[in-house]
């Protein structure tokens, strides 16, 4: 079982006690929530990076076609219309 250190006037050097069942359950819930949040943030960051790379590739394709005088797709045209 997990332990915690409690400081108070009666125990200025601290006393080591076990977590209660409720505290241990809350600790496990907090750990799981934090791990889920970290995973969600990593996934969001990866998705944002993938979206940026796709946008950059589309812009590069549109630029190449403009330079070559080729027709653009609607999606490529949307990238250069302000």
Describe the structure.
This protein is α+β, with helices and mostly antiparallel strands and 82 residues long. The chain has one domain (3-80). Helices cover 67% and strands 17% of the residues. The chain is built from 2 helices and 2 strands, in the order ββαα. A two-stranded antiparallel sheet has the order 1-2. Strand 1 (3-8) and strand 2 (11-18) form a beta hairpin. Helix 1 packs across helix 2. The longest helix is centred in the middle third of the chain and has 48 residues, at 21-68. The chain starts with a strand and ends with a helix.
Describe the structure using short key phrases.
two-stranded antiparallel sheet, 2 helices, rod-shaped, 67% helix, alpha+beta, 82 residues
Mean pLDDT: 92
List SSEs in N-to-C order.
EEHH
Approximate strand percentage: 15-25%
Number of helices: 2
Helical percent range?
A: 55-70%
Structure class: alpha+beta
Query: Quick one: biggest sheet?
Result: 2 strands, antiparallel
The termini sit apart by 61 Å
Shape designation: rod-shaped
Give start-end ranges of low-pLDDT stretches.
none
What's the total number of strands?
Answer: 2
Q: How many structural domains in the coordinates?
A: 1
Please state the CA-atom Rg, rounded to the nearest Å.
28 Å
- Spatial ordering of strands, largest sheet: 1-2
List the helices and strands and how they pair.
Layout: E1 3-8, E2 11-18, H1 21-68, H2 74-80
Antiparallel strand pairs: 1-2
Helix pairs in contact: 1-2
């Amino acid at each position: 079982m997990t332990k915690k250190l409690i400081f108070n006037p009666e125990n200025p050097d601290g006393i080591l006690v076990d977590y209660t069942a409720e505290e241990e359950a809350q600790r496990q819930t907090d750990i799981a929530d934090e791990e889920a949040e970290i995973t969600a943030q990593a996934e969001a960051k990866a998705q944002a990076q993938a979206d940026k790379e796709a946008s950059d590739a589309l812009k590069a394709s549109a630029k190449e076609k403009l330079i070559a005088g080729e027709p653009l797709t609607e999606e490529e045209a949307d990238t250069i219309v302000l």
